[in-house]
Design a protein that fits this description.
The chain is α/β, with parallel strands linked by helices. It has helices spanning 13-24, 36-47, 63-76, 103-128, 146-149, 162-181, 210-213, 215-221; strands at 4-7, 28-33, 53-57, 82-85, 135-139, 188-192, 232-234, 237-238. Helix 1 (13-24) links the parallel strand 1 (4-7) and strand 2 (28-33). It is globular and about 50 Å long.
Length: 241
């Protein structure tokens, strides 16, 4: 019986490539996107490669959309084995200082990157509990590391994109808290740093290609029973909080 995975923000970039790589391992992937049209388009492209996927509309900041998605997955599959919270936004104004970013940017960034993740996870957790070995992967970033932000000369010391960075720090905190709750279950939850990847967000000059950017998510989605819970990883390496 194939594992069932749901990936938010899977219409393009790292999410789309994660869907491809998971499906290539035999996982049945639910490609979720903000609109049904975008989800359908992405799913069609993967189906054309001979992969087993389905499309689902899921806007992570919309409670009604989340509820409808849960209803759909419940009716079709009755369980969920893998949830990858991939959807995310970066809306900081690069021309402004840390203290000058608008509250509107802070609110909208947290709505998607933190509250959206929590809402989706809460909604799908009952279905994950029906899995023999549920896996939750939260797409974080090395930019969420307070340790590295505090060390002059670190790879991210000069990359102060405050709303985005702090949203990923908060996401890391949520990962740790949820992992504690799930510590005595078969569900594992971890945070993934994909790397600086050539996506719309990462830019064309980023050093990593999209296929490599998906690898950490795929690794954490397919963890064995003795795999980690409550960690922060990139390509199998533990990152400092």
């Amino acid at each position: 019986m194939s594992k069932i995975a749901l990936i938010t923000g899977a219409a393009k970039g790292i999410g789309f490539e994660t869907a491809r790589q998971l499906a290539q391992t035999g996982v049945h992937v639910i490609v979720a996107a903000r609109s049904q049209a975008k989800a359908d388009e992405a799913a069609a492209a993967l189906k054309a490669e001979g992969l087993t996927v389905e499309a689902l509309a899921l806007e992570v900041t919309d409670a009604a959309s989340i509820a409808a998605a849960v209803t759909s997955v419940t009716a079709r599959h009755g369980r969920l084995d893998i949830l990858i919270n991939n959807a995310g936004v970066m809306q900081d104004d690069g021309s402004k200082k840390v203290s000058e970013q608008s509250l509107a940017v802070w609110h909208s960034t947290f709505d998607t990157n933190v509250f959206g993740v929590i809402a989706v996870t809460q909604a799908f957790l009952p279905l994950l509990h029906k899995s023999a070995a549920g896996r939750i992967v939260n797409l974080s970033s090395i930019l969420g590391s307070n340790t590295l932000h505090s060390i002059p000369g670190s790879p991210i010391y000069d990359f102060k994109i405050p709303a985005y960075n702090v949203s990923k720090t908060a996401l890391n905190g949520w990962t740790v808290q949820l992992a504690y709750e799930l510590r005595d279950t078969t569900i594992k939850v971890n945070a993934a740093h994909p790397g600086h990847v050539q996506t719309d967000m990462g830019g064309a000059s980023a050093p990593m290609a999209i296929p490599d950017g998906a690898k950490t998510s795929v690794q954490l989605a397919l963890l064995p029973a003795d795999g980690p819970n409550g960690g922060y990883f990139h390509m199998g390496e533990t990152l400092p909080w």
